[in-house]
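#onboarding

Welcome to the new folks! Below is a worked example of what a typical request in this channel looks like: someone posts a single protein sequence, and someone else replies with the predicted structure as tokens. Don't worry about understanding the tokens yet, we'll cover that in week two.

Example request:
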Amino acid sequence: MLETLVPVLESRADMGVVYARGQAMDERGHRLPNLQGLPERFPGDSLRSLVYEDGTCNVALLARRECFERAGYYDEDLVASEDWDMWLRVARHYRFAFVDKVVVAVRWHDGNLTGPTSPRFAEVLGARTAPLDKLFRDPDLPPRVRAMRAAAYANVHLFRGQRWLQAGELGRAFRSLGAAVRTSEDRLTMITRIVWFVLAAPLLGRSASGRRAMTVLADLRRRRRAADERR
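Example response:
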């Protein structure tokens, strides 16, 4: 990880943070197909990208010390998602660089605080909006970011729905997914995303060819978004 990320910060004075991907593994160390760490939703606009979704992999990330001196550290009053809250504050002042490479393995096991078997699972999911609540209370938030409020909250509801499905809590999952549709300003697109994330993506993720297809589709979506941003 250090060999990959340190040179990026050393060569990019305009970047405050650099992060890469992490790959899940089970308690025995066997690699799983799940990846953490996403390229920026809005290339070149780290704050908007982080408001849209927390795409960082917190254990595959390096930041300059000055980021914390300016934006502060973890908010210890938060129940969960304190890393997302901190990076949102850092992104108000610094840009993030993404390296599309797996540099760490993230162990998934029954003792994970954020895992579906955790006794605090519901509490953690319930606190997922806290970083957004803090952000949108700021009267000095840039208009381009404030305009993303509906999309940001809708994405949290979608995230909750996915996690409740993984936990086998269908009632809670459908309520969260319904909230995602109601909150979104583009309900048809949100319904399409729900179908993709809940049905199509899990099926494709079971095979190597399916995962390759998902990578290609994701790349096409990123290129289309980048083209839209340039227009």
